[in-house]
Amino acid sequence: MTSSADPLASAAPNPTYSLVVVSNRLPVEIEVDDDGTEGWRTSPGGLVTALEPMMRSSDGAWVGWPGIADRTFEPFENDGISIVPVRLSESELEEYYEGFSNDTIWPLYHDVIAPPRYHREWWEAYVRVNRRFAEAAAAAAAPGATVWVHDYQLQLVPRMLRDARPDLVIGFFNHIPFPPYGIYAQLPWRKQILDGLLGADLIGFQRLADAGNFSRAVRRLYGYPTRGVAIDVPAPEGTHRRVIAKHFPISIDAAAYEELARRPEIQERARQIREDLGNPKTIMLGVDRLDYTKGIAHRIKAYGELLADGRLSVEDVTLVQVASPSRERVGPYIALRDEIELAVGRLNGDFSTISHTAISYHHHGYPREEMVALYLAADVMLVTALRDGMNLVAKEYVAVRFDRDGVLVLSEFAGAADELKQAVLINPHDIDGVKAAILRAIAMPRQERLRRMRALRRKVFDNDVAAWSSSFLRTLTEGAAVRPGIPDTLTGALKDLSRADNILVALDFDGTLAPHVDKPEDARAVAGTREAVQRLLDLDGVRVAFVSGRALVSLQHVSQPQTGVLLTGSHGIEVQLDTPEIELDLVTAELEQLDALAEVLERISGSVDGTWIERKPAGLALHTRLATQRNAAAAQKAAREELGELLPGLTVRDGKDVIEFAVRSSTKGDALERLRRHTGADLVFYAGDDTTDEDAFAVLRPGDVGLKIGAGDSLAGYRVRGPEDVPLVLGLIADQRAAVAAERDAAAGA
Q1: Which residues, including other chains, have CB under 8 Å from residue 431's CB and lie 6 or more apart?
Q2: Which of 79, 387, 540, 610 is the most buried (most CB within 10 A)?
Q3: Higher pLDDT, 675 or 487
Q4: Closest Cα to residue 391, out of 464, 483, 289?
Q5: What does the pLDDT average to over 552-562?
Q6: What InterPro entries does the entry give (predicted)?
């Protein structure tokens, strides 16, 4: 902990909450009755919906601004959630929010569609307000609490919290895009923003490209090493922290939207909307905040040209455009409103008739029920964003269409395009392409509409907002809940271990020596591992072994072991012990079972995105790391049930995002016992991260040392945070073993 002189550290003498969410706005807003009585009501929104149940069950608090300037509110409870209001002045809103957040960061992060403005007083206000949010979060957080910070207005909060409260587990989610380095580098405070974000343990982005842009900016500006999603950030006393930068595409409460859409009164309202619009053959709909990133002018231009060309008529096609007010005191938004309303007026003046209006334009928001009715009424949904982190409107439209009808026209520059591949994808800058897409959507045959919408709905419902929030928090807590560094108790245990005559150092590979990666063949041990292993191999009385669930050939490929390293693969079914040959024997019946096993798993994997099969000498593994949580569970359940009937004698082993089936039973515990016999080890050190490593921990004896890598329940007596700590542990074993040898040599000489 930092000293009490630090205002953040001293702000939390009695923290009380195990989960703290920090966002610019609170999930509640002031409601004033007709008699002037004020009360709080829950704000609509997917983030609130996703986090409410979790926060109630985990004693959570939400830190944010209540929406009214220059007023102080004491913390209070609202519907089971503790609310911690942060006061902002009118001038701070102007400089921190309207200025730096929305006139500097917003346009910069959206590819400079509008020019960002840089003012030092805005930056100073941004720093000041971020510190106030950090102080409130630090005061609300219990020791070791998880703090989840949201969005571009609060990018400095993670570092401020890290410096003051190193005990916290800190996550950050960026709801808007993160720009390529060539654009990001324009920001005068580019290094300060990166440093602020790197205070988090996990930084989430909407798209894979955004996470990549962030990691590249870190490499260019700080030179920190990156590997996959991991960034090694220097920490005090010469150590380093592992920060994960990864994409977690946000979503909606899809089931709630469908439930609304199925209500008879909302379906009746949808019919009424069509009637009020003159019952055109096709209703096209655009729903956006009035923002220059949304491409509203582009869709109006494309529609207007189609009317002018005579390829559409207002009697057949109407465009409904909902443009809810946004940042109305910011200059570019004032100009944008004038531009859009002028374009709407001209188009309506040129093409509307007494009975049919070309564009039904609405510059105000609607309650969710009215929006759902509009979605049901619309035949074509137009999402023409020039740059968008996600665009949840696209997902809302899909969730509402329980009739499986309707066509989504979607910009490829919206994050939603990464998932909603069955939409009609467009480049909104290509007006001719937008026009062609509109005509295609209007003329699309019913069977094609149904096929596309069915696929879109499957994607949205499989990846709903609950899956998003649980995936983020699971990644955050599993990867960051263990304090960095080597515990003193582990150091003491290793010192005792080092005094044994013969030591076996046995190591799992994936997740222990190497970080988990999406493609198993790309796994490589972290820096320093090879040198640490060689130091152990050079010592008398020390043997080193790699114990893996991988096939042994795969283990050899990724680990590139030095001469003298013992190898066991497929949980001990394959071994290579001081000989060049791999030992394995399978009988004919087992080979036949392997063929049947492969047929079932390949069929299941072929029908589920994000899953793949790994072949092993005595079995197969179904990997689900890249699948959604729901799809992964369904695929594993189907495999378990079908193979349980077809091949009831199989050995089934659950791992981290993997389920393995083997025709011959063996565990890492069996492998470790065989290694102990082969080496004649007096004591064993074993390190592993997976549930399959628990079999090895279970066979450890008194005096042995088991090391769990990462969080989660374990039989191991000790743990470290991640693979980056393992070379340090191996080096410590080598140091202590060398010291013991020196002591013995000195005693013999005396």
Answers
A1: 298, 301, 302, 305
A2: 387
A3: 675
A4: 289
A5: 92
A6: Glyco_trans_20 (IPR001830), HAD-like_sf (IPR036412), HAD-SF_hydro_IIB (IPR006379), HAD_sf (IPR023214), Trehalose_PPase (IPR003337)
25 C-beta neighbours (distance < 10 Å), count: 18
Query: Which H/E stretch holds residue 309?
Result: helix 296-309
Q: What is the mean pLDDT of residues 10-15?
A: 43
Radius of gyration of the chain (CA): 30
Q: What is the DSSP letter of 84?
A: E
Task: Name the phi and psi angles at 189, rounded to 5.
Answer: -105, 35
Which residues on neighbouring strands pair with residue 321, listed in sequence order? 286, 361
Give the pLDDT confidence score for residue 4 in this predicted structure: 35
Lookup: tokens for 135: 């102080």
Query: Residue 203: which H helix or E strand, with range?
Result: strand 202-205
Partners of residue 514 on adjacent β-strands = 510
Give the three-class secondary structure for 618.
coil
Query: Is the CB of residue 411 less than 8 Å from the CB of residue 268?
Result: no
Query: Measuring CA to CA, which residue among 318, 288, 291 is closest to residue 303?
Result: 318
With bands split at pLDDT 50, 70 and 90, how would you rate the model's confidence at 451?
very high
Residue type, 273: I
Is 445's pLDDT higher than 90? yes
CA–CA gap between residue 607 and residue 197 (Å, rounded): 38
What's the whole-number mean pLDDT along residues 482-506? Answer: 87
Cα(388)–Cα(61) distance, integer angstroms: 29
Give φ, ψ of 480 to 5 degrees.
-125, -5
Polymer length in residues for the chain? 750
State the residue for tokens 């189609």: 306
By C-alpha distance, which of 710, 698, 712, 707 is closest to 729? 707
Q: pLDDT digit string (tens) for 78-118?
A: 887 899 999 999 999 999 999 999 999 999 999 999 999 99
Alpha carbons 498 and 736: distance in angstroms, whole number: 6
Ramachandran angles phi, psi of 515, nearest 5°: -65, 150
Task: Tell the burial category of 361 from Cβ atoms under 10 Å away from its Cβ (0-12, 13-18, 19+).
Answer: buried
Average per-residue pLDDT in the chain? 89
Per-residue pLDDT of 645-661, as tens digits, reads 888 878 888 887 889 88
Which of the pair, 628 or 428, is modelled with greater confidence? 428
Mean pLDDT, range 720-735, rounded to an integer: 92
The helix/strand/coil state of 290 is: coil
Angle, alpha carbons 468-409-335 (nearest 5°): 90
What global pTM score does this model have? 0.69
Q: What is the mean pLDDT of residues 439-459?
A: 96
CB distance 475 to 516 below 8 Å: no
Distance CA 452, CA 444 (A): 11
Tell me the average pLDDT across 392-400.
96
Q: Return the SS3 of 408.
A: strand
**In whole angstroms, how far apart are CA 388 and each of 225, 251, 395, 428?**
29, 14, 13, 12
Cα separation, 346 vs 352, whole angstroms: 10
Q: How far apart are CA 381 and CA 441, in angstroms?
A: 9
Tell me, rounded to whole angstroms, the distance of Cα 441 from its chain centroid.
32
Q: Is 112 left (phi over 0), alpha (psi -120 to 50) or beta?
A: left
Cα 76 to Cα 216: distance, rounded to the nearest angstrom: 42
Amino acid, single-letter form, for residue 477: T
